[in-house]
Design brief:
CATH architecture of the largest domain: Alpha-Beta Barrel
Distance between the termini: 66 Å
Strand content: 5-15%
Number of strands: 15
Structural class: alpha/beta
CATH superfamily of the largest domain: Dihydropteroate synthase-like
Helix content: 25-40%
CATH class of the largest domain: Alpha Beta
């Protein structure tokens, strides 16, 4: 069995040992080494090299998730792999469970068509910029939406500009002339052809998306599918997803019947009627819709980002298609694959019990404030004791920060984050922004570099330096 050495600090050592002892059945043998620092999150690669003697009797070494520095250099120095674990030690069992399951979220089968619904009202440069943002969010195809009774004189130029940037392009219109122009300009797909406009596919090489004359007219769509199957021409078929409460369930049944009748065809599902027209967080809606898409084997989804509440729909779709594909391939419930779709609430928001926090607080010997959150509320502690409350304002009088503006500001920010985490049931980690999943963009953190002091700490240090430096000290 593999033997892993876990490096940690004094305050986390006991909890880490309890977590590892609780992994049942055991996946490896283990040893915990406290390397002579109090807070494990402050560990660095340089510190490890100074304090941990070689050789290490292990198959690999796991360091805290926020350990900074070059782990590749440590691996070379000690002659065995060093790797970062999860940010929170209580997530270690889940970390190893995911690795054991071999979860690969790089794979998916459903392409995302992201529509620019007002393309005819935008300039070519604006369309190209919008397309770049949509692709970075996960879109595979940029869909140019043609607005009714709105001339699109620069349609050909827009298609050419997007193609020049490496995009696959679709043109979305019910006007035959715009579809013909888009196809002749090099659009990869045309949305959408009814039984009465199938002739357009004979005029241009673009792959058509077939729709019924009316959403309820399944027979007309099935006839179009049979015609294209007979010719061997590539196509996608869309049964049209209706909004709530105007036939959503019935339209889902139409998709199921389409799949049952034509087992091998490529199906498209336009989901904007649900994500845009339902005032609810779209991350959950996308999760369910892409779960349905995975069961149906949907080849492409058309989505939009028009309503303010749907501003992250493409990014959510990208996450959802990967998670649901993995769930289907593993024949597993869509749990434990990713937290990215859990934008509001955390799966395990309060990893530490109040008694564990009290135990950690009793070991603290310095004046620095620690902030943690549990089911009991917000906990603030240092060497002067532990305070707990659900309202941060009730904690402030006991902090003694009335004369320290910078520190008071810092604690105000941290306690605000802690209150939000407590109220919503989210994971809180001091000195870290709250996690909102794919609802927000997070800058990549370079763990090779040491973290610079924050603005309030720099200000406090500068104030102390100025206070201790006499006038004209540089001349003395």
């Amino acid at each position: 069995m593999e033997h892993i050495v876990f490096l940690t600090g004094r305050l986390a050592q006991r909890n880490l040992e309890q977590v590892l002892a609780g992994i049942d059945p055991p996946l490896f043998t283990w040893e915990v080494r406290e390397i002579g620092l109090q807070v494990a999150g402050l560990m660095t690669a340089d510190m490890i090299r100074r304090r941990v003697e070689a050789p290490i009797a292990a198959d690999r070494v796991m360091v805290p998730g926020r350990c900074r520095g070059d782990l590749a250099a440590l691996s070379e120095h000690y002659g065995l792999p060093f790797e970062r674990g999860p940010d929170e030690l209580k997530d270690i069992p889940r970390h190893f469970n995911q690795a054991a399951r071999g979860i690969d979220l790089s794979r998916y089968e459903t392409r995302i068509f992201a529509e620019i619904v007002d393309a005819s009202a935008l300039s070519v440069d604006e369309i190209v910029a919008r397309g770049a943002r949509l692709r970075s969010a996960g879109a595979d195809v940029i869909d140019l939406g043609c607005m009714p009774a709105t001339p699109f004189g620069h349609l050909e130029e827009s298609v050419a500009a997007l193609k020049a940037e490496g995009h696959r392009v679709s043109v979305d219109s019910l006007e035959p002339d715009e579809l013909l122009r888009g196809g002749r300009a090099g659009a990869d797909f045309l949305l959408s052809l009814t039984p009465d406009t199938l002739w357009i596919a004979d005029e241009v090489p673009s792959t058509p998306v077939l729709i019924p004359r009316e959403p309820s007219d399944e027979a007309s769509l099935h006839q179009s599918v049979e015609r294209f199957l007979a010719t061997g021409r590539a196509f996608l078929a869309d049964s049209i997803l209706d909004p709530i409460p105007f036939g959503l369930l019935g339209s889902l049944c139409r998709y199921q019947r389409l799949r049952e009748r034509f087992a091998g065809i490529d199906i498209m599902m336009g989901i904007g009627n649900v994500t845009e027209l339902t005032e609810a967080d779209t991350s959950g809606i996308n999760a369910v819709l892409f779960g349905i898409a995975a069961e149906l084997g949907v080849a492409a989804v058309l989505t939009t980002q028009v309503s303010p509440h749907a501003r992250r729909a493409v990014r959510e779709a990208d996450v959802a298609r990967r998670v649901m594909f993995a769930a289907r391939e593993h024949q597993s419930l869509p749990k434990g694959f990713s937290d990215e779709l859990m934008t509001v609430h955390g799966r395990r928001p309060f990893p530490d019990r109040p008694e564990e926090i009290a135990q950690a607080a009793a070991a603290v010997k310095d004046p620095n404030f620690r902030v943690q959150v549990s089911e009991a509320g917000i906990h603030v502690y240092n060497r002067d004791g532990l305070r707990t409350h659900v309202d941060p304002f009730e904690l402030y009088p006991d902090l003694g920060l009335a004369e320290d503006g910078g520190h008071a500001f810092y604690m105000g920010v941290e306690l605000a984050r802690a209150e939000i985490a407590f109220q919503l049931g989210k994971r809180y980690v001091q000195d870290r922004p709250l996690e909102w999943g794919c609802a927000v963009d997070r800058p990549d953190e370079d763990l090779m570099k040491h973290r610079a002091p924050g603005a309030t700490l720099r200000d406090r240090r500068a104030a102390r330096t100025n206070k201790d430096t006499p006038p004209n000290a540089q001349d003395s």
